[in-house]
UniProtKB/TrEMBL annotation:
Taxonomy, superkingdom: Eukaryota
UniProt signal peptide: none
EC number: 3.6.4.12
Disordered: annotated segments: 473-494
GO cellular component: Ku70:Ku80 complex
Localization per Swiss-Prot or TrEMBL: Nucleus
Domain Ku residues, every copy: 251-391
Keywords: ATP-binding, DNA damage, DNA recombination, DNA repair, DNA-binding, Helicase, Hydrolase, Nucleotide-binding, Nucleus
Species this chain originates from: Mastacembelus armatus
One of the GO biological process terms: telomere maintenance
Protein name: DNA helicase
Pfam family, any one: Ku
Length: 549
């Protein structure tokens, strides 16, 4: 249990350093023999890390508890003694109150494998329940991360009154089943860590005088490596850059009020004040306006022009009713959206989405609406694709076999960006003085051996159908020889004639493309076919029409 808890704590530390390094994290052990806390006011409570920003030193401290040496170090440093969860909660309350900063969200996770930590001591149980209630009254969210123990973990025995109720449908709440695997435990921690923050909060106008408050959330954002920070080379202090605007002729510093903007129209420079530019940008106040409903089949795949966002009404009753109604009617809502001030309006489609949960009651898909941004007429482009020879039905069927063999269920969360993962592992190795960074498995590389095993002879069969005999894509085409014009001249190549039955066999197998252009031309002459072009596909089409008649 302790080994798994240590790995989860390390995972929380390293993820916080990457995702939100300004969050404050503390690590407190209770039930220890030694005591270490502010003023040593509480016995059997050991504050391993005070409430502060996570850093490399803390990760190294947690790594020191690894293995047999780590267990020996923990026994020597903290030991094992009486348990008082009430004192531990009181100590955590003092850690929160000692911070002078205003904390937007406070969370306390209890890792334990004891369903009755006080062994039935009613006084200690009452003290823990009272202190947990005080913490919850001050805005602290208490979560239980319990592990498997012999005989099972009886949650209602003690912890039902300790743990905070779920804030909304998206929160996990009290999990009755214990964490049996490290992955399960880490998944729960991640579910607790990620706080939903709205990109925008708007009013959805359903009609005159009928408005619904909604929040818009980004469900997927492209992850990028953090930008480099400029440092002063002598002191390694961070430097700031400032931009100033000067007059090109006098060199005097210009104030923002002295700067105007212009745009050339018809070879004339149209000068505008800053207020005029802002007035031109403003179309209407931010919000969503319902225009109507459309059948779901009217929404096409090529309408996708940018990543979709997620809309969730603030009123829970409206969410369930509206989603169910749209799903029953198989329609989407068409709206006009202005997400921020001075933003241009866009047409969006609100596509309903049902709630889904897994076996552990962890929400996989939230109920609400996916906001699909629709293109304007100006956004649509007329393409002129190159003319390519059409594949025969036999070639198409062969490729269908290949596609069916290589199909698999794709999940975006199963693939990590190898560049970003390697970047953070390199930083972690430098910060923690590691000999070498952890190896990163490149999950986007194709598994060649597995692909070859699935396809078998299909690749060679497809190659024989499409490409000429002896085709090798890795070899360069041979340079054309110049015709020898001297002396006796070049000898003419003998004509190559193909019997009619062989031509019909090639046509049925779809292998006419394997014949060379001279052979196809000779075959056309053989059947009296007039050909104006010299392209191979034109000759094949003419022969196919003649042999099929």
């Amino acid at each position: 249990g302790l080994k798994r808890q240590r790995r989860v704590v390390r995972s929380v530390y390293t993820s916080k350093i990457i995702s939100s390094h300004r969050d404050l994290v503390a690590l407190v052990f209770f039930g220890t023999e030694q005591s270490k806390n502010p003023k040593n006011a509480f016995k059997n409570v050991y504050v391993y890390h005070n409430l502060n920003e996570p850093g490399a030193k803390r990760v190294q401290d947690v790594d020191a508890l690894r293995g047999e040496k780590g267990a020996q170090l923990a026994a020597e440093t903290m030991g094992s003694g009486e348990t008082s969860l009430g004192d531990a909660l009181w100590c955590c309350s003092n850690l929160y109150s000692d911070i002078k900063l205003r904390l937007s969200y406070k969370r306390l996770m209890i890792f334990t494998c004891r369903d009755d930590p006080h062994g039935g001591d009613s006084a200690k149980n009452r003290q823990a329940r009272t202190k947990a209630s005080d913490l919850k009254d001050t805005g602290v969210n208490i979560n239980l991360m319990h592990l498997m123990k012999p005989g099972g973990f009886d949650v209602p025995l003690f912890f039902c009154d300790i743990v905070s109720p779920p804030e909304d449908e998206g929160e996990l709440g009290l999990q009755m089943e214990p964490c049996t695997k490290l992955d399960d435990l880490q998944k729960r921690v991640r579910a607790k860590e990620l706080k939903k923050r709205a990109m925008a909060r708007l009013n959805l106008c359903l009609g005159e005088g009928i408005n619904v408050a909604v929040g818009i959330y980004a469900t997927a954002v492209s992850a990028r490596k953090p930008g480099a920070i400029k440092l002063y080379r002598e002191t390694n202090e961070q430097v700031r850059s400032k931009t100033r605007t000067f007059h090109t002729q006098t060199g005097s510093l210009l104030l923002p009020s002295e700067i105007k903007k212009a745009q050339v129209y018809g070879k004339r420079q149209i000068v505008m004040e800053r207020d005029e530019v802002n007035a031109l940008k403003k179309f209407n106040d931010p919000g969503l306006l319902l225009i109507g409903f459309k059948p779901m089949e009217r929404l096409k795949l090529h309408h996708h022009i940018r990543p979709a966002v997620f809309l969730y009404p603030e009123e829970d009753e409206i969410t369930g009713r509206s989603v169910c109604l749209c799903l029953e009617k198989n329609v989407f809502a068409l709206c006009r959206c202005i997400s921020r001030r001075n933003y241009p309006p866009q047409f969006v489609a609100l596509v309903p989405q049902k709630e889904e949960v897994d076996e552990g009651n962890v929400q996989i898909t939230a109920p609400g609406f996916n906001v699909i941004y629709l293109p304007y007429a100006d956004d649509m482009r007329t393409l002129d694709p190159p003319q390519c020879p059409s594949a025969s039905q036999i070639q198409v069927d062969k490729m269908k076999e290949i596609v069916s063999k290589l199909r698999f269920r794709y999940r975006s969360d199963a693939f990590e960006n190898p560049v970003i993962q390697q970047h953070y592992r390199n930083l972690e190795a430098l910060a923690l003085d590691m000999m070498a960074p952890e190896e990163t498995e490149d999950l986007i590389m194709p598994k060649v051996a597995q692909i070859d095993g699935r396809l078998g002879p299909l690749v060679q069969e497809f190659t024989d159908l499409v490409y000429p005999a002896g085709y090798n894509p890795e070899t360069k085409p041979a340079a054309k020889r110049k015709t020898d014009t001297g002396g006796a001249g070049a000898e003419k190549k003998p004509k190559v004639e193909v019997p009619e039955n062989e031509l019909r066999a090639h046509m049925q197998n779809g292998t006419l493309g394997k014949l060379t252009v001279p052979v196809l031309k000779e075959a056309c002459k053989q059947f009296g076919i007039r050909t104006t072009g010299t392209k191979k596909q034109d000759l094949i089409d003419a022969l196919t029409d003649r042999l099929a008649s």
